[in-house]
Design a protein that fits this description.
Elements (H helix, E strand, L loop, with lengths): L1 H11 L24 H19 L6 H8 L3 H13 L1 H15 L1 H18 L6 H12 L4 H12 L5 H33 L3 H8 L1 H17 L8 H7 L7 H9 L2 H10 L3 H18 L4 H13 L4 H41 L3 H25 L8 H23 L7 H16 L6 E2 L3 E2 L11 H6 L4 H5 L4 H9 L26
Antiparallel strand pairs: 1-2
Helix pairs in contact: 2-6, 2-8, 2-9, 2-11, 4-7, 4-19, 5-6, 5-8, 5-19, 6-7, 6-8, 6-11, 8-9, 8-19, 9-10, 9-16, 9-17, 9-18, 14-19, 15-16, 15-18, 15-19, 16-18, 17-18, 17-20
């Protein structure tokens, strides 16, 4: 026993951060670059940031691009829809790739493959070609899934909301930063001597290069798991190479993932919609100039520097005290308040008041994104990638639906569309009340009276034959570590499984 203890202690000492039995970090040190945990954190958010900059590089320059390519309001609306619809299926595919091949390879590959579409934007000469480059560039937003999967693979449940929130939030920050970056790059190129119709084209080489470099950084410097990359662990036998059909089955068969995909469509999906329309909204409605509209629009996205991370941190704080039930209640409250302020944004007619309401709205809607991915890591252990992909895809579907319904063509004014979008947020968020974990409970009900444990819930994803081969060992460790979701008040009363207990079947 002494030898085993010393070996385990020696094994854990190789990590700069404290770790649990899965070697996931139990602490989050923002200004550390220690491998593998914090290095992967910084690589993931920077890469996702680059993809966000590329995807939303066009909106702040739309008044110029519109004149150059003779785009109609419908053309612009269709291009905005294309930019966020491209990632719908890509995010599900990314989740699958993460489950089977690891987040490092999946993220680097997609980031590199979509970079050419950013460069090709510079040669767009029609509404169709502009729509196509925005469509294919939008595929890069699927790197969000690898970012969240990676953080969930490297950080323990007690800090996973924080890690997911900061990585996702700082990545989303690219949607605001590009509202500042692209007008500045455009002005610089024009100042050097290019005319405005040439300057906007050259400007797209900056986000394209940034995205390319981030892909190489992920590939050469990242690591999938605390103990190595998927390919190495598969070869050594330390990690089971999972079966796609079973992983997919447990993901799509878990209703909690579908509910969170719907609600995420009305926090992150709304954020994507606002990124597409807000600069032009202020430019047209309040007659501000291009740079001012860009600064106002940027302030919405730049709130991600603290709002989405704040949501993730808040999820961990309430989870520590009130468990999963606290996470669900907080998500519902914050996202519903986001809907209220979205309604107000469409109603107010003063520039200064609109900016103030927009900023408050941005904090709530982005915090809800962080809160969502404080819950996602606990929906499934075996199918985390696909569940993350489904949820991420739900965000894009929400963005597509809201833009098709409210911001395509002239059926609604932009301010009316924003108000109606707020109503949809409130309605769709209410389904969070249906989420129930038998081992922890839901918003209105406590844990199952059958004495269900974390092992019962997560081990039901493995067959008896797979357990005999030891494929379930990582899930068993995850089950033990997820007991923190009982909350302080539930720890003493929650049942603790015995080693020979046969888990009940729960999905």
């Amino acid at each position: 026993m002494e030898i085993t203890g010393n070996a385990e202690e020696s094994h854990q000492n190789k990590f700069a951060l404290g770790v649990d039995s899965e070697h996931k970090a139990t602490e989050f040190k923002l200004f550390s670059f220690a491998a593998p945990h914090m290095r992967a954190f910084h690589l993931s958010w920077i890469s996702f940031f680059a993809c966000f900059v590329s995807t939303f590089a066009a909106p702040p320059l739309l008044p110029i691009i519109r004149d150059d390519l003779d785009l109609t309001a419908t053309d612009i609306g269709n291009a905005g829809i294309a930019a966020v619809s491209g990632a719908v299926f890509a995010r599900i595919a990314m989740g699958t790739a993460c489950d089977l091949f690891g987040p490092r390879l999946a993220s680097a590959t997609l980031t590199l493959l979509t970079a050419p579409a950013v460069y090709f934007t510079s040669i767009s000469n029609s509404a169709v070609s502009f729509l196509l480059v925005r469509f294919f560039t939008g595929f890069s937003l699927a790197t969000f899934v690898s970012t969240q999967f990676w953080m969930s693979s490297l950080f323990s449940g007690r800090v996973v909301g924080t890690a997911n929130g900061v990585a996702g939030g700082w990545g989303n920050l690219g949607g605001g930063a590009t509202q500042l970056i692209m007008p500045l790059v455009f002005d610089l190129i024009k100042h050097i001597g290019a005319n405005r119709f040439t300057a906007w084209r050259i400007a797209f080489f900056i986000p394209g290069l940034f995205q390319t470099l981030s892909a190489f950084g992920i590939f050469f410097l990242g690591q999938d798991l605390p103990d190595g990359n998927y390919s190495q662990l598969h070869k050594s036998g330390d990690k089971h190479k999972d079966n796609f059909a079973r992983v997919f089955h447990h993901a799509v068969g878990n209703y909690r993932g579908w509910i969170l995909a719907l609600t995420y469509g009305y926090c992150f999906g709304v954020e994507l919609t606002i990124d597409n329309i807000i600069a032009q909204y202020f430019y047209d409605r309040f007659n501000v100039n291009l740079n001012t509209a860009g600064i106002i629009a940027a302030s919405f996205g730049l709130a991600n520097i603290f709002s989405r991370p704040g949501g993730g941190i808040l999820s961990d704080v309430v989870g520590k005290k009130f468990g999963m039930r606290g996470r669900l209640w907080t998500l519902w409250i914050v996202q519903t308040l986001g809907g209220v302020f979205c309604i107000l944004l469409g109603k107010v007619g003063s520039l200064s008041v609109s900016i103030a309401v927009m900023l408050i709205f941005s904090v709530f809607v982005q915090a809800a994104c962080g809160l969502t991915f404080g819950v996602i890591p606990f929906v499934s252990s075996r199918s985390l990638g696909i569940v993350s992909g489904m949820t991420g895809a739900g965000g894009n579907v929400g963005a597509v639906l809201t833009q098709v319904i409210f911001f395509r063509g002239s059926k609604y004014s932009t301010e009316t569309g924003i108000t109606l979008m707020g109503v949809m947020i409130i309605c769709c968020t209410s389904v969070i009340m249906l989420i129930y974990f038998p081992q922890w409970g839901g918003m209105f009900c406590g844990p199952s009276s059958k004495g269900t444990t974390e092992e019962d819930y997560y081990m039901s994803e493995w067959t008896s034959a797979e357990k005999e081969k030891g494929f379930h060992r990582a899930t068993l460790k995850f089950s033990e570590n997820s007991r923190t979701e009982r909350g302080i008040k539930k720890v003493e009363s929650a049942p603790t499984p015995t080693p020979d207990r046969t888990p009940n079947t729960y999905v």
